[in-house]
Amino acid sequence: MLTKETLQTEYDLICIGGGIMSANLALLAKIFNPELKVLILERLDKVAQESSAAWNNAGTGHSALCELNYCPEEDGKVNIDKAIQICKQFEVSKQFWAYLVENNLIEDTSFVKQVPHHSWVFGKDNVDYLEKRYQTMKSHFMFDTIQFTKDKQNMSKWFPLIMKSRSDDEALAASRIDRGTEVNYGQLTETLFEVLETQFNTPVHCNVEVTDVDPNPDIDWTVEAKDLNTNTVYNLEAKHVFIGAGGGSLLLLQKVEIEEKEGYGGFPVSGAWLVCKNQEIINQHLAKVYSKAGPNDPPMSTPHLDTRFINGKQELLFGPFAGFSPKFLKEGSNLDLFKSIKMDNLSSMFGAFWHNLPLTNYLVNQLSMSFEDRMEELRTFVKDAKDEDWEYITAGQRVQIIKKDEYEGGKLQFGTEVISSKDGSITCLLGASPGASTATYIMLDVLNKAFPELLNTKSGKEKLQQMVPFYNADLDEDLFKTTLKDVEKKLKL
What distance in Å separates the CA atoms of residue 324 and residue 270, rounded to the nearest whole number? Predict the structure, then answer.
């Protein structure tokens, strides 16, 4: 709770939102300069309750080991450039966690576990694609441990639950990389905030809603924050502000007086899972198995059957299924979408809608699905799945980015993007996947914008190299493999 006694007159950095992005940024800033005055504000009564919560995301350490949307086929060849980029960014996150372990800031590494990552496809064209992807990835040192098979007996060893009751005439193929990870991002976020509070005297103030951010001629920004318990409003002064409020970031960004925000909009999409209730079935699957999205379906629709570890218990999830709500947060308002439509983003919103009619059709089809329809989708993975063994749960809310486009008026963009003022004094993260997996990399970029003096001194560069060797590095095979082995040892993978 905010009180006059707990507040300072001004801050070097105010982070808005108690999710994994704010946790990474605040902790990185304090590691580079423990004297920085940092304040973290969260609207809900606990941290990690929205997108960072374990049930609200896929839990996959997104490293392009199994996600086929990072490897598009172009003119008959598979392009892995995006896969290389995503893999490197996730390895930066792992290196940061290993650094925290090495420096006795984290002891419990149970938030991350090794779970093999698989790609699995059916149909001749998809089998041909997966084999091309395998050949291309195998030739790169970051993915050279990849395995590929069209043999059903091999697949039965990798994921027996999926291979039950398969006919001999089905065209199937799969790839596997053993070093894949399952990550409880909710547990990780709570751990990072605990480090901030116990080691760096930086608590999170919950039940505090930021209602506005205004320019301040004396110290860059004034943050208007309302204590939801007492209804007291505080005006807090900050040299730097980071808006990391998940789906709520857009509505707050629109109140900030910077020209860089112009034209941005958002489209909310909710997610859901089928969750297995039968422990006997759960125990038959220790894998993350991703398949291919339909030809007109968005990347976020990629179906997967995943082992998860949540609250100390092994779980089994299938999805995601898309839904629609005008809310920008799970605990948001039904007016969020309508409030976000402004004169400066009207053409962007219309253009994105007009040029993404297949997405609209996809969402309509998803919304019209019954429980039995969803079970039929599951049965493409688990042939003998029984209704009574599964339940349907609603997951998190995501806001996909809409931005100006000179040709289409507006463009719907999947992924994440950092919006920053010219001087870097205010930054805002918009978008969704692969956000949590690449949080450290993204927040290092934010830190470089907001506090370039921290990273660009001789000591800053040395610490950065020690902490995350892959950041801004030209990777070679020796550096990659040596560092990977060291990190896996420290994280007990």
Answer: 6
The count of other CB atoms within 10 Å of the CB of residue 323 is: 17
* Residue 250: other Cβ atoms inside 10 A: 28
Cis, peptide link before residue 326, omega less than 30° from 0: no
Radius of gyration of the chain (CA): 23
Read off the DSSP letter of residue 457: S
Contact in structure between 419 and 428 (CB atoms under 8 Å)? yes
Three-state SS at 171: coil
pLDDT tens track for 202-258: 989 999 999 999 988 777 899 999 999 999 999 999 999 999 988 888 888 888 888
Q: Do the beta carbons of residue 394 and residue 272 sit within 8 Å?
A: yes
Contacts of 416 (CB under 8 A, 6+ apart): 401, 429, 430, 431, 432, 433, 434, 435, 438, 442
Q: How far is CA 294 from CA 117, 139, 169, in A?
A: 20, 28, 22
Between helix 477-490 and helix 81-102 the angle, nearest 10°, is 40
Query: What sign has the CA pseudo-torsion 161, 163, 167, 170?
Result: positive
Comparing CA positions, the residue from 179, 29, 25, 27 lying closest to residue 91 is 179
Query: What are the helix (H) ranges across 317-470?
Result: 336-340, 346-354, 357-367, 371-378, 439-450, 452-455, 458-467
- Both tokens assigned to 38: 């940092």
- Which two three-digit tokens encode residue 96? 């940061």
Question: Taking Cα atoms as reference points, which of 381, 434, 487, 476 lies closest to residue 114?
Answer: 487
The residue among 360, 363, 285 whose CA lies nearest residue 318 is 285
Q: Is the pLDDT of residue 478 over 80?
A: yes
What is the Cα–Cα distance from 273 to 332, expressed in whole angstroms? Answer: 20
**In the block, which residue shows the tokens 């707990």?**
6
Task: Convert the pLDDT of each residue in 156-172 to its tens digit.
Answer: 999 999 999 998 899 99
Structure tokens given for 269: 């999409």
Other residues' Cβ atoms within 10 Å of the Cβ of residue 146: 21
Q: Which amino acid is at 319?
A: G
CA distance 440 to 11: 22
- Which H helix or E strand runs over 200? helix 185-200
- What is d(CA 359, CA 296) in angstroms, rounded to the nearest whole number? 8
Please name the amino acid found at residue 29: A
Cβ–Cβ under 8 Å, residues 220 and 425: yes
| ω into 434 cis (within 30 of 0) | yes
Cβ contact 236:4 at 8 Å: no
